[in-house]
Request: fold
Amino acid sequence: MPTTDQKTPGSELTPMKFSRLTRRGVLLGLSVAQLITLGIGGLALLAAFYGGAGMLLVYTAPVWLLAVVLTWVPIAGRPMVEWLPVALWWLWRSTGGQLLYRRRIVKPRPAGSLALPGDMARLREHLDPETGACMIHDPARQP
Reply:
């Protein structure tokens, strides 16, 4: 009587281990993207201070607060600013309808033809019904 613990050979899954994301920073442990967003926020804050502070700080608050959030708030272990290229690329592909891969089949291929690119598309496949052997014929070469 077979046990339920028996497995067919080659059907076992082996765990894969990927390397960690690099955490090296350019300056003070911050990446280039983090430094750019922090610089934009810092410039907005500095312009508000030199412009007279007061209400200018309130007007520029969305810019420098967003810069701080994008720089230091993590999502899945990465700062938000590092997810922006991924999100923008996904948005670009989704608006273009490129998230699904579908092959359009206009008509089925004729029997014996191979789906090969370029000059190799002219090759034909012939099957010998008696022996089961397969032969490839190139009609352009005419042997």
